[in-house]
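[agent] plan:
  1. take the single chain provided in the ticket
  2. run structure prediction with default settings
  3. attach structure tokens to the ticket
  4. add a short note for the reviewer (M.T.)
[agent] executing step 1
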Amino acid sequence: MSESNLIKTHSRFYLSVNPAADGRKMRSIIAEDPEWSLAEVPALTKLCLQCIVKNFTEKPILDELKPSHKSYVLERLSPSLPLTVTANLISDESYWRRCTEARWGPSDVTAYGNSWKRMFFERHLEGIIELFIPDVTDTRTVLELVPLCRNYVKRLKISQLLPPIKEPPRFDEDDESDCVSDAGSDGPSVDHFDFQILLDKLGNLEELHLVYGVKGCGMNFEWNLFEFTFRDCECLAKALKSCKTLQVFSVHRSKVDDDKCCILASHLLDHPSLLELDLSHNHIGDRGAKAISKLLNQSKLKKLNLYNNRIRGPGAQALAQALSRNTTLTSLVLRLNRIGDEGGQALGQALMKNKTLVNLHLGANKMTEPSAMALSRALVDNSTLKILNLSNNKLGADGGKVLEEGISHNCSLVECDLRLTDVDQESELYITQTLRTNQSLTGRKPHHSPNDEV
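[agent] step 2 finished; step 3 output follows
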């Protein structure tokens, strides 16, 4: 192109970009290069940041950046980056929120201390444990995650634990007898996930909730899918003892019987931090209750939940004896057991000595008028108990009268559930009015928990 034509081309370009430079109406030029654009060339800084984002897995650069540049990179990082890269490098909550919602959809973070990073790692570790198959899943899938998540995991809620895959016995046509004996000698190394490999490594773990069962087994139902074995129990008990930071422990709907309860209780006797124990929906009887009573004497438990077990009078008497000396327990739930008047009277006598219990749930325990009399006498002297649930016990009209008398001398009780107790309406009305007076004096409103249903 000649110099004159080049000048003309530049002048047309200048006038198309700067129409104010000439009063005449000008047409925009058409570039010969189809990829040519009037878009502004990105700054070198931006190009460098884009390169950092693109190559973050191979060369993660973050802390060295200025705050504004760091924000730019974090907003553009993929939520699917390897955890080995991001876990201990990225603390930005917005990034972990994107990771969480990309995997599980919109989520409520309030139950995780409003920490998206904690929520992500707790749910991630829970998922690995819930899908762990003994002798099939490599334990390294759990152990390799520990250095990445141990600073952020405070609670684990395991809703299922899978048993080993049950293989049918194989028979050799040449020597059937030998093969049968060999097959009988082989077996899984563990019955469920062994928490001994994990709990002592989670230095911030405060809560552990377990169910030894399988969700959604459907037509593949077998009883062995819901079996908490002795080997499981021994492994779990040792793991609990090694987890010095644990404050809340529950294993429910897992067929924990007296023998297994004794094993768990013996390993928790000197636990330095355990405050809440939930063994609800199991098969615990009197021997198990006696083992727990020893735990009450030596531990710092504040809450004990034995809802829906098989505890009868002797077991309740052992718990009552421990309760009369205990100075830490604030809540005891014995709903849906079989303590009867033998246990009800013992607990009433314990309340005359106990000075710390605030909540006592004795619903559906086959108690009658003698239990009401013992509890009534206790309420005359007890100034600590605030919530008493006696629902679904056959206390009768006379039982209601004696409770009415005891509550009339009490200023601390603010709730007393008497549904389905055959207490007459006059007594129930008087008790309700007295409780309202106590509520106004203490400024406490009635509290209804999910376990309050009859």
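[agent] step 4 note for reviewer: The beta strands are 155-158, 207-210, 248-251, 276-278, 303-305, 331-333, 359-361, 387-389, 415-417.
[agent] ticket updated
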